[in-house]
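Format notes (please read before filing issues)

Several people have asked whether sequences and structure tokens are stored in separate files. They are not. Every record keeps both together, in the order shown below: the sequence lines, then the token lines. Line labels are part of the format and must not be stripped during preprocessing.
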Amino acid sequence: MSKKILFHIMTGNPTGGSDYSLYYLIKNLDKRKYIPIVTFVKECFLEEKMQEEGIMTIVVKKSTLSLPQSAIKVGHKVVKNSYIRKILGYISKTSIEFLKLIMETYRLIKVMRQYHIDLLHLNLSLRLNRDGILAGILTKTPIISHVRGFQKIQKIDLFLSKYIKKVIYVSEAVRTANLVQGVSENQGIVIYNGVDIEAFQSLKSCPHTEFVIGSMGRLIELKGHINLVKAAALILKNYPNVRFVIVGDGPQKDFLFNEIERLGLSNKFEIRGPLIDIRKFLMEIDIFVYPSIAPDACPRAVIEAMAAGKPVISTKQGGIPELIGDAGILVQDDKSPIELSGKIIQLFDKDLIDKLGQKSRVRVKKYFDIVETVSKIEKVYAEILTNLK
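Then the structure lines:
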């Protein structure tokens, strides 16, 4: 008999690798054994796409309680002492966060009981899934937690983690970071994000006259795109037949546009919005740069670029070295545009590009095949559900 799995929760972020990684897992599940039901925080493209593919989705909006902006009062008196104000503000904030957690947990419990959920698969991190863990405990539903990023674990999260049957980490770096903070070693397993190899292996490069350097990801400070812009300015001084393209969106978009204009790169540096299918973009570039300046768990963009046979230049942040291995180039100083520009220039060599591109395809096939990823996760499901009998 098929088991119902509730996947909680997808953010609806159009450039979020975590959402897409979960989507491809759900898409490739053996539907004869498992019936997926997916919660979203808002309506979005992926939610519509899943519905079109016959996957049930439910929008469970986050609570919007917030602190009033008016002065803090005790009775009818306004509190003026700054120390006391901080304490009262903290108490108020904590109370609101607790109320939000209770409301979100209650809503999730209603969904779980309505659809008779057999297994709860949480997405993102322990801290962001407190409502899911509580809902699983209260409904006596077995819990799996996917940890897709680096997190600061609080005491409450360590306590709640004891009720999780299995924690799935997307890289050894993430696993190590959680163990150091006290999560039980026996609970965890590393399963890398996977890609549809066949969808990328058949890609051929589009003919182009310029050497194209591409990057992709959310346009936030931690992704380090500003260093690529500065590196481009250095490279174009001596190599004018080069073009740069970033695909993505985010709060740093205007800042990056302004820097590109300030450095006189407008004709050579393009920022495009997020793409639904990034394969066409990967066909038009020669190398892929992922200049992250903060720990990155298992960036999907890097795996997809490697699957398309593109050499990757990146940093030593988080799980990135695990992904690239010897199939790419790592920058030692992730905040140095000078070093980054030097590594890019190093790849102005067709033989080296071909060599690393082939290594990338081989590495993805060995470690990041979506078929293997799904198979390993289904084994976790089967083990947990079998032990319940």
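For reference, the curators noted about this record: Residues 227 and 337 are 5 Å apart (CA to CA). Residues 69-76 have pLDDT under 50 and may be disordered.
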